[in-house]
Write a structure and sequence with these properties.
By secondary structure, the protein is mainly α. The chain has a single domain, classed as MetI-like fold, CATH 1.10.3720.10. It contains eleven helices and no strands. The chain has helices at about 1-35, 40-50, 55-65, 70-80, 90-115, 115-125, 130-135, 140-160, 160-165, 175-185, 190-220. The chain is globular.
């Protein structure tokens, strides 16, 4: 039962993280693709940081920031009864931050590659920015949206360092599959560790293979190939 509960929690974290990241990635990717704000390079660097920082560094600063012993963590706990350290909520927040570039960057790159004519025609017809984004631009970058969702999902189910730092190892709350693998290897229980590891491997392989196949089908339907 522990195996199935751990996998259920892993998929729940990955699913919630992906669903929350999708609108964030759309609006942030749109901003980074088209904004002329001088602060844009700084925001883009912040988006890229989770890709290059060691997970333990990101996890450490999240742990310090949201600890109840610090101002922000104490404020959230006292006024909102929200504990973000060693909790499911904190695990979701850390996963969102850590997987943000996997959602945002494909969307930003795809929007940047679109012809400016699409926006110009839409504005000429009297459509506003929100309508143009959702009904003109996004339908033309479906592969990027799918790629962002899939890579965010598989990245979330495989993350370890940030999960360990901010979530710990609490059964039925924060003990996801990557933590379980570490635990079972430490206990020399290689059979169960293999069960967790192969399950993650198979799921990630199938999802990534599917995204490449669907992307190829989309390109063929658009007459690119």
């Amino acid at each position: 039962m522990d195996f199935f509960e751990t996998m259920r929690l892993t998929f729940l974290v990955a699913t919630l993280t992906t669903l929350i990241l999708l609108p964030i990635g759309i609006f942030l990717g749109n901003y980074l693709a088209f904004s002329q704000n001088p602060l844009r390079p700084i925001i883009e660097v912040l988006v890229w940081l989770p890709l290059v920082l060691p997970p333990s560094v990101l996890g450490f600063y999240l742990l310090i920031t949201f600890s109840p012993t610090n101002a922000l963590g104490a404020f959230l706990l006292e006024y909102f009864h929200l504990k973000l350290v060693f909790s499911f909520e904190g695990l979701i927040l850390a996963s969102i931050i850590f997987s943000l570039p996997f959602m945002c960057n494909p969307i930003k790159a795809a929007l940047s590659s679109l012809s400016p004519t699409l926006k110009e025609v839409s504005f000429t017809l009297g459509k506003n920015r929100i309508y143009t984004l959702f009904f003109v631009l996004l339908p033309n970058i479906k592969p990027a949206l799918l790629l962002g969702c899939v890579t965010s999902f598989v990245h979330t189910i495989g993350e370890f360092g940030v999960v360990m730092m901010i979530g710990g190892n609490i059964p039925n709350q924060t003990r996801v599959a990557s933590i379980a693998i570490y635990d079972e290897v430490e206990s020399l229980n290689y059979a169960l560790a293999h069960q967790y590891a192969f399950t993650l491997f198979a799921i990630c392989f199938i999802l990534l293979l599917s995204i490449f196949y669907l992307n190829r089908r989309f390109q063929q339907s658009q007459g690119i190939l």
